[in-house]
Amino acid sequence: YDNIFTDGRMGWDAATAWADQLVFGGYEDWRLPTIVDTGTSGCNSAYSGTDCGYNVQTGSAATTVYSEMASLWYDTLGNLAFYDTSGTGPQTGWGLANTGPFSNLQSSVYWSGTEYAPDTNYAWRFITYDGAQGLSYKDSERHAWAVRSGDVSAVPVPAAVWLFGTALVGLVGWTRRKR
Predict the structure, then answer these.
(1) Comparing C-alpha atoms, which of 45, 22, 17 is closest to residue 124?
(2) What residues have CB less than 8 Å from 101, skipping those under 6 apart?
(3) Among 114, 113, 53, 51, which Cα is nearest to 81's?
(4) Of residues 58 and 177, more confidently modeled
(5) How confident is the model over 155-178, as pLDDT tens digits?
(6) C-beta separation of 78 from 68 below 8 A
(7) CB atoms within 10 A of CB 19
(8) Model pLDDT, residue 169
(9) In 10 A of CB 87, how many CB atoms?
(10) pLDDT band, very low/low/confident/very high, at 64 (cuts 50, 70, 90)
(11) pLDDT exceeds cutoff 50 at 9
């Protein structure tokens, strides 16, 4: 891919192509996370409750996710933005304090798969350093995080573990019979 740097950062076109062509874990339907432009068209920046800025809207009534990255960062991982909802910062405990089960999650800027409708030279992005959501020029160097809709099924128990468990049960039964 063009425009991918050795540290993993890339332009928006390269990031969307990378996610679209990714085959991992037996799945081919990877994409960049989405962001819904809520309210009036454009980046309506504030410290709370909008689609742009800090403490952004993450969803409504658990049926609509406005920002997959913000929902993960705020709701699932419990991270805090640099600014609290009144605009006072830094708030205690802000930043990427919890990465959950994710390996190599950088305190950095990540692309979304959503173009900025008022000016398609820009795309939406989320910053895991401080919890800000906003815009970046598409040629900017950002990280990419591939996601897919739905859940990946549970990993089956390996055969060796099953065999060990069966042998253990048999050994316990054999020991009891000998008594």
Answers:
(1) 45
(2) none
(3) 53
(4) 58
(5) 444 444 444 444 444 444 544 455
(6) no
(7) 20
(8) 47
(9) 12
(10) confident
(11) yes
- 9 near 16, Cβ under 8 Å? no
Tokens standing for 21?
């062509």
Q: Which residues pair with 4 in a beta bridge?
A: 10
Take residue 167 and report the two structure tokens written for it.
């042998």
Local structure of residue 14 (DSSP, 8 states): H
- Collapse the DSSP code of 38 into the 3-class scheme (helix H, G, I; strand E, B; otherwise coil) and give the result: coil
CB 142, CB 69: distance < 8 Å: no
43 neighbors 52 (Cβ within 8 angstroms): yes
88 has pLDDT over 90: yes
110, amino acid identity:
Y
> What is the arrangement of strands in the sheet containing 122-127, beginning at the earlier edge strand?
45-46, 52-53, 133-137, 122-127, 109-115
pLDDT at residue number 86: 96
What's the predicted TM-score (pTM) here? 0.80
Rounded Cα gap, residues 40 and 148, in angstroms = 28
